[in-house]
């Protein structure tokens, strides 16, 4: 069943499911493009939600994906999984061991009706850089290579959505770093929305433009990743890993000093030692709360490259001895993790003007 508005770019998952000691109850309307991360503590229902969208669990409600109605219990409509145009990538690549990488990918392709095939096999192979792996059996591939083949197999079926359940969590840091750029490429070259479960805030910050925070089967918060990461009422903005994500545009690269300048909605930031990027390139920057300090007078003769005029938006006490500050630069919210002692000594309070000294800025893509 296809909705009359074929240009509908959204994913709706209005779902309820009751188990003996767990209930899923979500009303989600998500973007029909880009990566949406599902994040939350173990057992909060991330996998159950993804499986329900896939029709692998019999939740009740309504699921639509960019105009396709997969489930509408009110209209007694429910498509089984094989009739839902989706790709599913699990933590461990579940490839057929007796088939080569190529035959694994072709297997998915054969099961896709010709009318639905929109993604060319060659394109998928090129995108994931797996041409040299095609004749090999899964047992001869590394974990990262296997996962790239599994993603290729899912993509080759021309899915309307890609469901990824912790696709990198079984890989060590090095293999993860090897696969991540392919996920970036996927976003740049394929217009397929991705729902992505991850336990890693780093991964979420890097890949996801949209974020859903779940707890005990319910949605705690949902919205732009950058906005949610900086919200003091949410657990993400607390502790040693708290960080703000800042969308920016490269304006200059000074090759002699290895300094890149990027403009964001609130000023300029300079990054040292990053690869040269052409002016105009859109980038996402990550600023950790522990790398931001606050001064009440403009710091002089400082080695810190980035000093921004800000306004303190909010202050919240943290784990013993710490306070988390939201500081606003233009329209951008940053986080600063300070000692309680400094907050008291300096008499810091919401509404005050100050200078944020940013010690480290990381390029996410
Ligand atoms: N097949 C099942 N039968 C009964 N209960 C289940 C089943 N699968 C999961 N559960 C329970 O449902 C709840 C949600 O599980 P789910 O796997 O969706 O959580 P999750 O957020 O994906 O967790 P994790 O991050 O650990 O993977 C948990 O309480 C879990 O114990």
From TrEMBL:
Residue ranges of every copy of the Mop domain listed in the record: 301-365
GO molecular function: ABC-type transporter activity; ATP binding; ATP hydrolysis activity; molybdate ion transmembrane transporter activity
A Gene Ontology term for the protein's cellular component: membrane
Name of a matching Pfam family: ABC_tran
SUPFAM superfamilies tied to this protein: MOP-like, P-loop containing nucleoside triphosphate hydrolases
Keyword Iron: no
Domain spans labelled ABC transporter: 6-241
UniProt KW keywords: ATP-binding, Cell inner membrane, Cell membrane, Membrane, Molybdenum, Nucleotide-binding, Translocase, Transport
Gene3D superfamilies reported in the protein's UniProt record: 2.40.50.100, P-loop containing nucleotide triphosphate hydrolases
Protein name as it appears in the record: Molybdenum ABC transporter ATP-binding protein
Source organism per UniProt: Comamonas terrigena
Encoding gene (name): modC
């Amino acid at each position: 069943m296809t909705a009359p508005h074929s240009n509908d770019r959204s994913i709706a998952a209005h779902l309820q499911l009751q188990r003996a000691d767990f209930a899923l109850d979500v009303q989600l309307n998500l973007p029909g493009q880009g990566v949406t991360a599902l994040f939350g503590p173990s057992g909060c229902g991330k996998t159950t939600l993804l499986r329900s969208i896939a029709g692998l669990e019999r939740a009740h409600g309504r699921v639509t994906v960019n105009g396709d109605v997969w489930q509408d219990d009110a209209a007694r409509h429910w498509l089984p999984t094989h009739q839902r145009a989706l790709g599913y990538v699990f933590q461990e690549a579940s490839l057929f061991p007796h088939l080569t990488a190529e035959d694994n990918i072709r297997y998915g392709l054969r099961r896709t009706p010709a009318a639905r095939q929109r993604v060319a096999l060659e394109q998928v192979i090129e995108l994931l850089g797996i041409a040299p792996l095609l004749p090999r059996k899964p047992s001869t591939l590394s974990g990262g290579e296997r996962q790239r083949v599994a993603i290729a197999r899912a993509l080759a079926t021309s899915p309307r959505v890609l469901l990824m359940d912790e696709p990198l969590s079984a890989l060590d840091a090095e293999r993860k770093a090897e696969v991540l750029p392919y996920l970036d490429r996927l976003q740049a070259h394929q217009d397929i929305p991705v729902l992505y479960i991850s336990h890693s805030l780093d991964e979420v910050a890097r890949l996801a433009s949209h974020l859903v925070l779940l707890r005990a089967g319910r949605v705690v918060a949902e919205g732009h990743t950058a906005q949610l990461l900086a919200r003091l009422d949410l657990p993400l903005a607390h502790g040693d890993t708290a960080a703000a994500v800042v969308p920016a545009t490269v304006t200059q690269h000074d090759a002699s000093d290895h300094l890149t300048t990027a403009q964001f909605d609130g000023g300029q930031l300079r990054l040292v030692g990053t690869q040269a990027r052409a002016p105009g390139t859109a980038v996402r920057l990550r600023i950790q709360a522990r790398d931001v300090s606050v001064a009440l007078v403009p710091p002089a003769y400082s080695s810190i490259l980035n000093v921004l005029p800000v306004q303190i938006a909010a202050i919240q006490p943290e784990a013993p001895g710490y306070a988390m500050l939201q500081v606003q630069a233009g329209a951008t919210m940053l986080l600063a993790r300070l000692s309680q002692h400094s907050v008291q000594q300096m008499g810091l309070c919401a509404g005050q003007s100050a200078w944020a000294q940013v010690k480290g800025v990381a390029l996410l893509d």
